[in-house]
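User: Teach me something about this protein's shape.
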Amino acid sequence: MGAIILHKFYFILIVASGLGLVHVFAGKLRFLDVVPRSRWLSFAGGTSVAYVFLHLLPELKRLQDVLRPAPGHVLSYLDHHAYLVALAGLAVFYGIERSTKQARRRSRHRTGEDVSTPQMFWVSISAFAVYNAVIGYLLVSEGERGFGGMFFFGLAMALHFVVNDFGLREHHKHLYSRYGRWLLCAAIVAGAVTGRLVEIRPAAIALMVSFLSGGIILNVMKEELPDERESRFAAFAFGAAAYAALLLAI
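Assistant: First, the predicted structure itself:
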């Protein structure tokens, strides 16, 4: 039994390392960096959103029971804790995105260089490192349910990382290429190792899934919605429909 668990963890480490390498090598996919937006990026965004709405958000319904406090608790008047945490995740990454864009604007006015400040880079990359570490930890949780769940979670996150990497590389340029991509790669592996070594209480996992759901929704939508992206709705819709069909079939 112990050998099976160990072999499963080795497989989880391989998947986590593969996800990390998406950040390392996504910048070499030059065909993604075009306007109108690459169909592949819009397709990847669609699959990420489908995973959130058909897997993570239904999971929030179950997690709500885990987070619900006992009657008389100071938070007992809050009926939707999991959804509030998802909203917080969305708000946090929206705030980071807005601050990064403002930093780029100030940099353009002062120096003519369209890149965020080093301070904003470290704020942003720290938030995304936590984000990736949570995904690495949840990869272990999915692995406990079976290889199928881990595979579909890993596939959705790999496509999602391509979208995230594109936005981070655009904002932070050489700082992301030199430091950011390696830190994000290390973060997801660190999350997976932590998931193997440390057993976190169900309520904490519920909070992580909730926060992650809000973050994924925002990080995909911020890349797809701006007019200057000239996003590909057909590719986005096809990615969402294809991945939804896949999830519903299993």
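Now, about its shape. The chain has seven helices and no strands. Helices lie at 2-25, 39-67, 81-111, 118-145, 147-197, 202-224, 233-249. If you'd like, I can walk through any region in more detail.
User: That's plenty for now, thanks!
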